[in-house]
Design brief:
Layout (H helix, E strand, L loop, with lengths): L1 H25 L3 H14 L4 H13 L3 H14 L4 H13 L3 H14 L4 H13 L3 H14 L4 H13 L3 H13 L5 H24 L1
Helix pairs in contact: 1-2, 2-3, 3-4, 4-5, 5-6, 6-7, 7-8, 8-9, 9-10, 9-11, 10-11
Length: 208
């Protein structure tokens, strides 16, 4: 019982430091915020959430190496902590390391395969880097696993247009227009897919 009380007390104290850190950060006092955050992690070194907050503090100061260490330590404690993979990807992007971004996004897809948003982010960076085969393989897997993934069909359609594969582009865009849009984003894709289909048909007619 005494041990539990001590553990609870330590956690309370650590999160009090967190509160003080966030208050200092809101007031623009980054130095005090970092000191308070370091104190929190010193008390609760096995708390992945606190380590993530510490990583953010370092990132704000552009102490990238320290930020990486904090984020990666958080991941070792909680390997399925999706937000930390995203933090590491953003940190890599901030330093201009796009392949590093892709590496972290590939890691989160492998570690947490049911988290759909990671596939969208990874596809975006594959396409940005013109890694078209990687993007195609990824998106093909997404639509097999989630047949209702409107965004993936739309991305495939655009990729096939770029690769000059009109038949596959038409098939992908048709998938978008037959799926009933639910969200505003899906409705926007529905409208864009209709327009894209028209363009593909027009280009085919002129080419033929």
């Amino acid at each position: 019982v005494c041990l539990l009380v001590l553990v609870g007390c330590g956690q309370y104290t650590a999160y009090d430091h967190l509160d003080q850190a966030l208050l200092a950060q809101a007031q623009g006092d980054i130095e005090t915020a970092l000191v308070q955050m370091q104190a929190a992690v010193e008390i609760q070194p096995q708390d992945a959430y606190l380590l993530r907050q510490l990583g953010w503090m370092y990132q704000q100061r552009k102490e990238y190496d320290a930020a990486f260490v904090a984020f990666q330590t958080a991941l070792k404690l909680e390997p399925a902590y999706v937000a930390v993979y995203q933090d590491l990807a953003m940190l890599s992007e901030e330093q201009g390391d796009i392949e590093g971004v892709i590496g972290w996004l590939e890691s989160v897809v492998a570690a947490v395969p049911d988290y759909k948003a990671s596939y969208r982010d990874l596809a975006t960076f594959y396409l940005r880097q013109e890694r078209f085969q990687d993007a195609r393989s990824l998106l093909d897997g997404v639509v097999v696993r989630w047949p209702e993934a409107t965004w993936a069909y739309f991305r495939l359609g655009g990729l096939y247009v770029h690769l000059d594969l009109p038949a596959q582009a038409i098939e992908s865009f048709r998938k978008v227009v037959v799926l009933e849009p639910v969200t505003d984003i899906e409705y926007a894709l529905f409208v864009e897919a209709h327009s894209a289909l028209g363009n593909v048909y027009y280009d085919q007619k002129n080419y033929d």
